[in-house]
Write a structure and sequence with these properties.
Chain A has 317 residues and is mainly α. Chain A has 15 helices and no strands. Chain A is globular. In chain B, helix 9 runs antiparallel to helix 12 (286-300). Classes of the chains: A mainly alpha (317), B mainly alpha (369).
Chain lengths: 317, 369
């Protein structure tokens, strides 16, 4: 599928180079007008997409009067201040001192990292094996064939979190899993598993079976062939599935707010609890939001290719 | 949207395990099952107070279940040989999902018929159809369901915008990579952060830039969350801001997979851009469009985070989604029983709706193609 995308892109580029010349004489003006429109529309949407980010990043360095007076551009109409970051204990003057609010923030941040990584890893392990099995073998579990198993996993996508939330609350209480990171990891694994299976299934379907056939002839067992031969080839798909899972887990709010409390609470719940309080300063809220979204903004910028690959899995066929 | 079973299947020589290993496999499984049942019985006796083994929680049963799962895997390999090794690929995922979904769903059905309240008296009991009758007379629930219709319809507007933007990204443009990343970024952000960034600060009545802009445009007293329709639209706008990137990506992938020669032929024929879109691009994009819309609707039905954090359902339930309403039933009243009833009814409605939607789209597609 990567190859397909690449060749599609190449084809588009090639035709883009060839086309304007052919029709250069027919309606230059209309074409120029069209191009102006295209770029204008692109820039307008870029503004819509990026302005809230710009606003949040800059507000994290504003003081109250900069907000009330509607100042927008740092150094031009307001002087950046570390006040917002200071309230998190992340400004230059507070970062080397012990700071209570920073301990809280770091705890939530670490929780988010552990839960996201843990759930994504577990989902990738469970999901890739399921996807590989469904891609390569014919199953019969009673009346269930491959199609039914696939459907069973994918149908989990329509389950809204509210349906599971309250039973989980009671269940986790009985299992002493409330407010634990492992409990949250299990729920998140369940949440992203269908997506991982979808992406990996698409990936395995593009790998010809001759590759394992050769490994089997060389004396590998099917698990040996899977682990040593197929997984390395399927690495791009695994990265895509993993990153997509991380994004979803990092942003999850509903389960975390219901199933965690003092110990295992994640970053979104902390952000939400701060939003609720009326007296909160804009600058500290903006600093907190910035810190919460920064990791994902970086992932979006540098790993865009994999996210697109994950989201478009299965649509290329 | 189901995955079709295609691609080659792997041909593997089936081996048959020896009688001894098959016998061992059967015994391992029997033993583990016995342990599971024993632990289960002990836990029930302890929980009901018949006997006291000093168990504080149900963890032992969880561990027994894990052990049983491992034994089941061993049993498959030992008794079925090659076929067992193959079963081992789907077994862990299947057991995990079954344990995590089936049990809570069934347990949820039980909770839904009780008056379970975390605040109230310590005991809860079966209350028959009371919850369903309450639900039938609950104006807030019907109101939230009505709002869901609005939110689902807003997906179509998002689709139109996303299609336009995907076409732009697919045009011959410079800096495509920059625009693609910029368009993707809103999708990466947590709805909770978006709630503050847009809902609570940019759309804030006094100092938010959106309010300033609205005042400049002649809206004297801009308030985005006080009158029902404006509040609902504001929520839909934020939701669109987060999710339009997702649709852009799906539609762009569809556009890039379109055969180029058809478009070239049309161009040579001298078709205008609009004619080309109407006669070629749009019909060819129908499958990709349908997939994008259906998946988006499925996600839209879970909409909650933004509503919970920006308006908490207000004003007067105008922005409530079913999920955010249930969240409030639980948070404000600790009413697990009734909250679960709503959730289960909602699930049934969703399943019916999605089934009809999939049927309708597949019929529509067959008619079109």
């Amino acid at each position: 599928m990567e190859l397909g995308q690449l060749s599609a892109e190449v084809a588009i580029r090639a035709s883009a180079k060839g086309r304007p010349r052919e029709h250069a004489h027919s309606g230059d003006l209309a074409r120029a007008g069209g191009r102006v429109f295209i770029y204008a529309a692109l820039i307008v949407w870029t503004f819509i997409a990026l302005f809230p980010l710009y606003w949040t990043f800059t507000t994290a360095f504003k003081l109250g009067r900069d907000v009330t007076q509607g100042h927008m551009i740092p150094w031009v109409d307001f002087a950046p201040s570390w006040k917002g970051w200071q309230s998190l204990g992340l400004s230059p003057d507070s970062i080397f001192q012990s700071w209570q609010s920073r301990d809280e923030f770091v705890k939530r941040f670490v929780n988010s990292i552990i839960v996201s990584l843990g759930a994504s890893t577990l989902a990738l392990a469970l999901g890739s094996t399921v996807a590989y099995g469904l891609s390569r073998f014919n199953y019969r579990f009673g009346r269930w064939g491959n199609k039914d198993i696939s459907f069973f996993f994918l149908s989990q996508l329509i389950l809204p979190p509210v349906v599971l939330a309250m039973p989980f609350l009671v269940l986790y209480k009985a299992l002493a899993l409330l407010d634990t990171r492992i409990g949250l990891i299990l729920v998140y694994t369940l949440m992203v598993l269908p997506i991982v299976i979808w992406v990996m299934r698409d990936q395995f379907d593009t790998i010809p079976t001759e590759i394992e056939q050769a490994a089997l002839v060389d004396g590998c067992s099917i698990w040996g062939a899977f682990l040593r031969v197929i997984l390395p080839i399927a690495l791009p798909g695994m990265v895509a599935a993993f990153i997509l899972s991380i994004v979803l887990c990092w942003n999850e709010y509903f389960f975390s707010s219901l199933l965690t409390g003092f110990d295992a609470q994640t970053l979104p719940v902390m952000v939400a609890s701060q939003t609720g309080s009326q007296g909160i300063n804009w600058w500290s809220m903006a600093a907190l939001s910035t810190a919460a979204i920064l990791p994902l903004v970086l992932i979006g910028i540098f790993l865009e290719r994999y996210i697109v690959m994950g989201l478009t899995a299965g649509s290329g066929k | 949207m189901g995955l079709s079973v295609d691609g080659g299947k792997l041909e593997v020589l089936q081996t048959h395990p020896s009688d001894a290993s098959a016998e061992l496999g059967r015994w391992v499984f029997r033993l583990a099952s016995a342990v599971l049942i024993l632990v289960g019985v002990l836990q029930i006796l302890d929980a009901t107070g018949v006997a006291d083994f000093g168990l504080t929680d149900w963890r032992p049963f969880l561990y027994a279940f894990l052990l049983w799962s491992v034994a089941l895997g061993a049993h498959q390999v030992l008794t079925r040989g090659e076929a067992g090794q193959q079963a081992l690929f789907v077994l862990p995922g299947l057991l995990f999902t079954l344990a995590m979904v089936i049990f809570p769903t069934l347990f949820g059905l039980y909770i839904a018929f009780t008056n379970w309240n975390l605040n109230g008296a310590s005991s809860h009991h079966f209350n028959g159809l009371d919850n369903l009758i309450t639900l039938w007379n609950d104006a807030y629930f019907w109101n939230a369901l009505g709002n869901m219709v609005f939110y689902v319809l807003s997906v179509l507007v998002q689709y139109a915008i996303a299609f336009g933007l995907a076409l732009l990204l697919n045009a011959e443009i410079r800096a495509r990579k920059f625009f693609r990343v910029a368009f993707l970024l809103p999708f990466m952000l947590s709805p909770v952060a978006v709630s503050w960034m847009i809902g609570k600060s940019i759309m804030e009545n006094r100092f938010g830039p959106a309010a300033t802009l609205a005042r400049y445009l002649g809206w004297e007293d801009p308030a985005f969350f006080t009158s029902p329709w404006i509040a609902r639209t504001s929520i839909a706008l934020m939701d669109g801001w987060v999710w339009i990137p997702f649709m852009i990506i799906m539609l762009l992938a569809g556009l890039q997979a379109l055969p180029n020669d058809v478009k070239e032929a049309a161009k040579v024929d001298g078709a205008s851009a609009w004619q080309m879109f109407k006669a070629i691009t749009f019909p060819l994009m129908l499958p990709a469009s349908m997939t994008a819309i259906v998946i988006r609707i499925i996600f839209e039905l879970k909409l909650a985070d933004i509503v919970i954090n920006v308006t908490a359902g207000g004003p007067g339930g105008a922005t409530d989604t079913v999920s955010s309403y249930i969240y409030r039933v639980y948070r404000d009243r600790s009413d697990i029983g009734y909250g679960t009833t709503i959730a289960e009814v909602y699930l049934i409605l969703i399943i019916i709706f999605i089934t009809l939607l999939l049927k309708a789209t597949s019929r529509y597609m067959r008619k079109m193609v």
